[in-house]
Amino acid sequence: MFLVRNKTSDGSFSSKNDEVYHANFSTLPCKKGVRKNVYNGVLRGTGDKKGDKVLVKAFKSKETTEELCTKELERYKQAKSLGRTFNKLVPSPSNKVEFNVLLAVPVEKVAFTNCVRRSKNKVTAKEWVIIEENLGMDFKDFIQKDGTSVLIDPTSLDAFVHYSYHKSGGKLVIVGLRGVESETDNGYKLTCPVIHSYAQTFGDTDRGEEGIRKAFEHHRCTNMCYAMDRPQVKLSDNLKANET
Length: 244
What we know:
about 25% strand, 2 domains, about 25% helix, globular, alpha+beta, Protein kinase-like fold
């Protein structure tokens, strides 16, 4: 018995000319999200990441085009850029935030078993997919899409939400923070951020001004937040009670 997998075209996670990868990935999704199907994969190629486990993602409601993938990458680039400047301000490495590296490439070959499957969501040849590092079994939600924290006490992630608004000049806020917390005091490794912006330029999860307002209705400030700008929002009665 042998396993035939789908295969992506080559691409690179870095600017190094000798780092070229493709991913072999399963024909059946390991997870079905609201917007995307997720497949287990393995990197093949010439760089240091060869053999690493990855996740391959494809949109469910529509064919995953290069344009859709570009919008996803723009969110990650924005989050990574703000994460780098935020990390210069935090008091210790355990407070740092880091975002996953993404690669967007078209599918080159589709396994025969995938071709014969009767599914409207199956991956097809020439469709674009997103490849990212598999963060493992300890993956969890920290900050939800509406800015609600699932953690008991405020952390540097709450501060980063506020910082993203402040540093962008009030143009956006980054929420939907999910990933893993390092066991070696290296902070948080995150993926799938959601950005709400006044211009609504960050894909179909961007809820614009309403998303920003909701995020700050649910936001919990830390000691880092007090010198930061924030929008004027009307707190709900429950949130007022929590602040007193």
